[in-house]
Amino acid sequence: MEKNIEQNFKDIEVDLETRWIELSKEVRQLSADLRSKATESAHAADVRKLSAKTELLCDHVERIHADVLDLLENLDTRLHLSPAGSATPTDEIEREKIQIQREQHAQTNFKDVIKALFMYVDDPKERVAQKR
Question: In terms of Cα–Cα distance, which of 100, 16, 9, 13 is closest to 66?
């Protein structure tokens, strides 16, 4: 079961990469550009329909992205509300995994750039060990 959780976290990491939001914004812009270019063409009505569907799809992707980030944050908050003595080492590791997820998808700062340059990967088990 541990491998399934690990794989789920890896899948979530991929799904929450900022490249999907960037792609959504790029698709929105391409759609808007096409719509403005096709206003006088024979395909204008079809382009407007496609553009409207594109907007809906991009809205949906961006909302799901934000909702999952909120869910991870709420889950992290709830895990931190449990009594300090009741957390098992596995709970602590799971809590750190969630925290790492949040940090990876937050705004990047200088520290994050340095980590990326050196291909640094956070390990939740190391974090738990350092806190003790």
Answer: 16
